[in-house]
Amino acid sequence: MDIYDILFWGLSVMAVGCALGIILSRNPVNSVLFLILTFFAISGHYILMNAQFLAIVNIIVYAGAIMVLFLFVIMLMNLNADVEPQKGQLVQLAGVISGGVLFLVVLAAIKSARPEVIDKTSTDIGLISNLGKVLFTKYVLPFEISSVLFLSAMIGAIVIGKKEHVHEVTKAE
Amino acid sequence: MKAIIATTVLGVFMMFAGIAANNKKSIVAIAILLFAALFGVTIYELVDTPANSSQLLFNNMLQIEHSSLWFNMLMTGCTLLYVALMGKEIMKVGMHVAEYFALIFFILCGLYILTTYNNLLMLFIGIEILSIPQYILAGSDKRNLKSSEASLKYFLMGAFSTGILLMGITLLYGASSTFYIDKFGSILHYDNINPLAIAGMVFIMIALSFKVSAAPMHMWTPDVYDGSPTAFTAFMATVVKAGAFFAFLRLFHVSFNSLGQHWTLLLAVITAATLFVGNVTAVFQQSVKRMLAYSSIAQAGFMLFAILSVSSADASYGMRGIIFYGVAYSVATIGIFSVLIKLKDYTYDGFNGLAKSEPFLAFVSSIFLFSLAGIPLTGGFMAKFYVLTAVVKQGQLMWLVIFALLMAAISVYYYFRVIIAMYFKPGTPELNSPITTGDRILLAISCALVLLLGIYPQLFLESFGK
C-alpha cells in the first residue's frame, strides 16, 4: 500500500463521509459546511489524477462562489432545524421514488462499468501549462471572444446597479 | 471577421464616447455615425470576398461564406435603420444611453459569430453574446416594474435554455467526439446512429427553438416583449431573432441535413404549434404591442419553414428564404414599432382616427402591416413565398404548407384591425412627441424598402437567385 493508495482511500472516506453528513445533519449551516468539505475531498481526487486546473477551479467556483451563495440564502431566509416546514406525504413519496430511480441508474452504471478499460497511465493533459497552450493556440478565438461576453456582463452590472439621478426619479413620480 | 473586430472596437469606443459627450443628443448622433461606419465595414467585407469562396479561420473555428456576409450586411443595414428611427426613443429610456448603444454593438458581434461559426463552442459563445445584452436592455427601464419583470424572466428562462443547449452539445460530443459542425455529416450516419447523438440533436433543437420563440418554448415572449421598453423590443423581435434563425439554419443545414428523417417530423410539429399558438392568440390581444409580440411568434413559425427545407438536397432555397424573410420581417416590424412608440396608448383604440390627424403615419403603418400580413407587392408576401416554396420543393410536408396558408389568413384579421382603427374609427390619438421631418423621411425610406422588397426581391438576394 503506497502513498497513492493511502491518499485515495483517505480522500474517498472523507468524500463519502461528508456527503452523508450533508443529508444527515439537521442544521442547514452544518450541511453547507459538510458540502464544502466534500468539494475539497473531490478536489483532492482531481489532484491525484494530475488535473490541477480542475482541482483549483472546483475549489474556486464551487467551494468559493457557489457555497457562499448557499450560505447567504440560508442566512437570509433564516432557516433553522426547528422552523423547517413539514413536508407532505406526497412530497415524501415523490422524493423516495425519484431518489430510488437515481439509485437504480447509478447501480446499473456501476454494474456495467468495466474497470479493465480504465487508462491508468498518468497523463499531463490536465496540467495548467498544457491547458494554457491549447487555450492560446487551438481555442484562441473562443477564448478571446468571450471577453466581449464578459464586457457586456460588466456593463449590465453597472447599468442595472447604478443609481439613477435623483431629479429624474422625482420627475417620474 | 473584419466585422466582428469592427463591432467590438466600435462598441468599446461607444462606451468612451458616453464619458466624453456631455448630452444625450450628441451620443445618439455619434451612435448613428458609428453604426453607419459598421455598415460600411460589412459592405467592404462583402465586396472584398469573392463569391462562392469559403474560408476557414482560426483553426476552423469560423467559416466565412458569401451568404453569411450578405446576411451580416443586410442585418447591419436593418440595425442602422433601427438606430436612426429609434435613437430619440432610446435616449428617453434611461441614463446610460451610450451603454445601450454599446450593448447593441455587442449583440451584433454575437450575430456575426452566429452567421459564421463552424464549431459548437462558437455557437454557444455567439448565443450568449447575443442573449446577455438583451437581458440588460429588457430591464433598462428601471422605474418600470414590468421592465424588471421582463428582464428577470428573460434571464432565468434564457439561462435554463442555455443549460439545455450545453447538455445537447455535450451529448453530441459524446457521440461523435468532435465540436466541428462540418464533421458531423461524415461521422453520424442515418441508419446506425448513436442514440446519444439523437438526444443531443433534439436538445439543441429545443434550446434554439427557445431562442427564436417557437412554441411550446414561447411562453417568455409576450411578457418579455411587452414589458421591455418599446425601443428595445423592436430590436429584440427583429434583428436578434433573424440572427438566431440563421444560426439554427446553419447548424441543421451543415451538420444534420443527412439525418433529416430523425428531426423533420419533430420540427414540423413545432412549426405547426408555433403557427397555431402565435396566430390564434394574437387575435385575442387588446394591446397592439402584445399583439406584435404574438405576431413575432407567428412569423417565427414561417421562418421555421426555411429550416424544415434544408433536409432536401438543394438547401439554397432555405438559405435564400431565411435571409429574405429576416430582412422583410425586420424592416416592417421596426417600422411598425417606430409608429407605435409615438402613440401614448398602445391599445387598438389608441390608433383610432390616426388617418385624420396624421395621414402619413397611418399610410406607412398600413404598408408595414400589409407586409407583415403577406399582401402581394410588399416584402412580406415574397418572404412567405420563398420559405413556402423551399418546403414545397422538398416535397414531403404539403399538409404543413396548407396549414400555414390557413394561419396566414387568420393573421390578416389582427393586422387589419389596426388599419380599420386608423381609417374607419373616430377619435384623436395622442402622440408622445411631434413627428419631425427626419422621422417622416426615415419612415418613408423604410416604407420604400418594404415595397422594394416586394417588387424587386432579386436585389436582396444577389447570389442566391439561381
Tell me the fraction of residues in β-strands of chain B, as a range: under 5%
- Provide the succession of SSEs of chain A: HHHHHHH
CATH top level of chain A?
Answer: Mainly Alpha
Task: Give the end-to-end Cα distance of chain B, rounded to a whole number of Å.
Answer: 27 Å
The CATH superfamily of chain A is known as NADH-ubiquinone/plastoquinone oxidoreductase chain 6, subunit NuoJ
Helix content of chain A: over 70%
Structural class of the secondary elements of chain B?
Answer: mainly alpha
| Rg of chain B | 21 Å
Q: How confident is the prediction overall: mean pLDDT of chain B?
A: 89
CATH architecture of chain A: Up-down Bundle
Work out the oligomeric state of the chains in this entry. Answer: heterodimer
Q: Can you count the beta strands of chain A? A: 0
**How would a crystallographer describe the biggest sheet of chain B?**
2 strands, antiparallel
Major sheet details of chain A: none
> Shape of chain B from CA axes?
globular
The tally of structural domains of chain A comes to: 1
Average pLDDT metric of chain A: 84
Count of alpha/pi helices of chain B: 18
Offer a quick outline of the entry.
By secondary structure, chain A is an all-alpha fold. Helices cover 76% and strands 0% of the residues of chain A.
